Amino acid sequence: MSKIGLFYGPTEGNVEKVAKLVAEKIGADLIEVHNVRDIETDVVVQYSNIILGISTLGKHTWSSDNEGNDWDQFLPKMNGIDLKGKKVAIFGLGDHIAYADFFVDAMGELFEVVGKTGATVIGSVSDEGYEFNESRAFVDGKFVGLPIDEDFEEDMTEERVDNWLKIILPEMK
Ligand SMILES: Cc1cc2nc3c(=O)[nH]c(=O)nc-3n(C[C@H](O)[C@H](O)[C@H](O)COP(=O)(O)O)c2cc1C
């Protein structure tokens, strides 16, 4: 298996925590981890197997040019890049209690951008075990990636990650 590139943002929060957990489980020799704040898209295209990690921080942050949000800066750069033939898996941090109507929306937004790159998105997840009202990341009866709620379901994160890796790793050959 060629090395997986994991790209995440922002830093020092729950996304970073889960990115580290994913990397630890896959093993340092098989994965390289990058913060989207530190790279340009030419780094992303070097990998055949890609994992993206994002959090939802409120609709208003998407249209602002808030410099504190790493994905706000990076996502527009991904428009138009070519990821044909590559596999992409996405995980998204959210809060299913306070934001039940917008649960992990940013993961859905990222999925839409990745869809235009020609990549094959893998690692969709059933809504079984999740409670929410609406989510932009819920498409055709499934989540487009792995939702994680570190605010209210921290104890479920490890099992969710383990189950997800069982799905995506065999596809990342
Ligand atoms: C201002 C703000 C807005 C948020 N908006 C949403 C939201 O719309 N949907 C959601 O699922 N979670 C939302 N959350 C919850 C975060 O996504 C969640 O706490 C996540 O773990 C943060 O990860 P991070 O610290 O790595 O950014 C919001 C949190 C904050 C602070």
Automatic annotation (TrEMBL):
Gene3D superfamilies for the chain: 3.40.50.360
Say which domain of life the source belongs to.
Bacteria
The record's SUPFAM superfamilies line, in alphabetical order, gives:
Flavoproteins
Cofactor dependence is on: FMN
Show where the Flavodoxin-like domain sits.
4-169
- Keyword Transport annotated: yes
Any idea which UniProt keywords this protein has?
Answer: Electron transport, Flavoprotein, FMN, Transport
Q: What protein family is recorded?
A: Belongs to the flavodoxin family.
Query: What is the organism field in this record?
Result: Paralabilibaculum antarcticum
Query: In UniProt terms, what function does this protein have?
Result: Low-potential electron donor to a number of redox enzymes.
Query: InterPro entries given for it?
Result: Flavodoxin, Flavodoxin/NO_synth, Flavodoxin_lc, Flavoprotein-like_sf
What's one Pfam family the UniProt record gives for this protein? Flavodoxin_1
* Name the UniProt record assigns to this protein: Flavodoxin
